[in-house]
Amino acid sequence: xxxxxxxxxxxxxxxxxxxxxxxxxxxxxxxxxxxxxxxxxxxxxxxxxxxxxxxxxxxxxxxxxxxxxxxxxxxxxxxxxxxxxxxxxxxxxxxxxxxxxxxxxxxxxxxxxxxxxxxxxxxxxxxxxxxxxxxxxxxxxxxxxxxxxxxxxxxxxxxxxxx
Length: 163
Description:
Elements: H1 2-12, H2 16-32, H3 36-63, H4 84-91, H5 94-97, E1 100-106, H6 112-125, E2 155-161
Antiparallel strand pairs: 1-2
């Protein structure tokens, strides 16, 4: 009875994470004899995770990526020109925190689109809308971007400060 009331209130308040996890967390709290504040903290963490997950799904759907790509799926045996350290650096979104725009250059078939989609998906997972990841256009008159790293003559990932 009490659990149903809590779930109904959570649903009315649009706390869908708490609504889904309430029964499971309540049984955990009873079995482990958790302090009421610890139980509340666990419920609030569930709500936060649920909201982050919903935001990531909505942003990914809105971005309409052409195909599914993850940085975890990157084939290092095929892409020998791009070291694991560079993929790790890109996956940590350091370019975003440094206010830089990545520029991915290379010949056909090297995985530029896969890398761009995987980075876009990672940005969505972190809650950054795809519109904040503007494309970089370089004309002959503009100076070339400051490189993050020159990977090789065939595959290059560069960045320049955002304007």
